UniProtKB/TrEMBL annotation:
The lineage of its organism: Bacteria, Pseudomonadati, Pseudomonadota, Gammaproteobacteria, Methylococcales. Keywords: Signal. This is Uncharacterized protein. It comes from the Bacteria. Gene3D superfamilies: Porin (2.40.160.10). PROSITE patterns: PROKAR_LIPOPROTEIN. It comes from Methylomarinum roseum. Residues 1-32 form the signal peptide.
Length: 405
């Protein structure tokens, strides 16, 4: 497992792994040329991806200086490999370099490194365990959100899949038990795991303690998800619930000497219908957040999020998307007016209502271009690191070019 909280240590570790991977690939190719009988294991698969985003906003900043400007500070480069060592055991690793403005600055990291052992398998049942840095099973898109080609749009619905806290949501160090059961009435998939959350997102710490020096570390947490699929994915349903814990230890005396405690309980309901040319997706989430010992009155809030999204294949290579996405930091104060009066901040920092219209085309099986327009009321899911004085009503234009190999 990868319990590395020091940024420099993580960087050198990821650099070494990526370097070793490149050396192994290069060395294997050279060895293969010199030894005609040499072949890589048939079960070894090596892939990668490269994505470059372009963003423009009428106001506010997203992933760099995009306000009345075009930001190119949104890019992702990843290398992944999987190897089925034996029928019951598979290992997988993905190393990613990502830049997303001040929310994710040129950091090389291990997105996942997993050992997957299935200890029971039959025609209808599969039981197994996973350990390491494992993609977090949450909602419909979280497991594969790291690769642009697996997302329906440049940006996932931000009310549920926050990009400002990408690392916290994407994967965690720990272990899982999983089960799959195929029946005449559909397929059931179950995951439950004990994890240690990743807390290295700059925006995560800043949203809670601002610029206060100190260290935010993950604590023992858990998450579970139950999926149901009918007729090979024609209908997909899921429910996710978990508890994410973290502690903040201040390096100053301005905060209570006790560690600050962060507790997050997400509950997500998901549904999707996939027809031949169109799909309809909706997710609804309740997010309970509890803060203790942060030098102010302890707080408990329950946020609310939902979106409804439709896609339609205009041609065999062109797909259109429309989505409405709504976020409220507190379901009992949806417009943020009570919070604004109490803390003297704009009420629109507590909600966001986002209409999205997009197009995507696969020029080749490996090359994807996506573009979309967002009309947004509110700034609830923007990073405070990039927006000290945000504007309520704003437009967002995005385009992304992605190449997979």
């Amino acid at each position: 497992m990868f319990f590395y909280n020091d940024r420099k240590t993580r960087y050198h570790l990821a650099s070494n792994i990526l370097g070793c991977a490149c050396l192994l690939l290069t060395g294997s190719a050279v060895f293969a040329e010199e030894n005609d009988n040499f072949t890589l294991p048939k079960s070894l698969q090596i892939h990668g991806f490269l994505s470059q985003g372009f963003l423009h906003t009428s106001d506010n900043n997203l992933f760099g200086h995009s306000d009345d400007n075009i930001s190119v500070d949104f890019r992702e480069l990843g290398l992944n490999a999987s190897w089925r060592i034996m029928p019951e055991l598979q290992v997988a690793l993905q190393v990613v370099w990502r830049n997303a403005g001040q929310t994710d600055q040129d950091d090389l990291r291990i997105d996942y490194g997993v050992a997957n052992y299935s200890f029971y398998s039959s025609e209808s049942t599969l039981l197994g365990i996973k350990a390491g840095r494992v993609p977090t099973p949450a909602g419909l898109y979280n497991d594969t959100r790291d690769v642009a080609s697996t997302r329906p749009s440049v940006l996932l619905p931000q009310s549920i899949y926050f990009d400002r806290n990408r690392n916290l949501g994407l994967s965690a160090d720990g272990g899982y038990f999983y089960a799959e059961q195929r029946t005449d009435y559909g397929d059931f998939l179950f995951n439950i795991g004990v994890i240690n959350p990743r807390t290295d997102d700059p925006s995560f710490k800043h949203a809670i303690v601002g610029d206060t020096p100190g260290e935010m570390t993950g604590d023992t947490s858990w998450i579970t998800r139950l999926n149901y699929e009918w007729q090979g994915g024609l209908v997909r349903l899921a429910v996710t619930y978990g508890e994410f814990n973290a502690e903040f230890q201040s390096h100053t005396e301005t905060i209570n000497s006790l560690p600050g405690s962060f507790k997050f309980n997400p509950l997500i309901f998901s549904a999707q219908y996939n027809a031949e040319k169109w799909s309809l997706t909706a997710e609804y989430a309740l997010r309970k957040i509890q803060l203790k010992n942060f030098g102010r009155q302890d707080s408990k809030t329950t946020g609310e999020s939902f979106y409804i999204q439709g896609t339609y294949k205009l041609t065999s290579y062109l797909e259109a998307l429309v989505r409405y996405d709504q976020y409220s930091a507190d379901k009992n104060d949806k417009n943020g007016e009570r919070f604004a009066e109490r803390f003297n901040v704009p009420n629109y920092t507590r909600f966001a209502k986002d209409w999205t219209f997009g197009l995507r085309t696969e020029l080749t099986p490996s090359l994807l271009i996506s573009a979309e327009y967002h009309r947004i009321n509110g700034t609830g899911w923007l990073s405070s690191l990039e927006n000290s004085n945000p504007t309520q009503h704003w437009d967002l234009y995005t385009m992304m070019i992605s190449y997979n190999f």
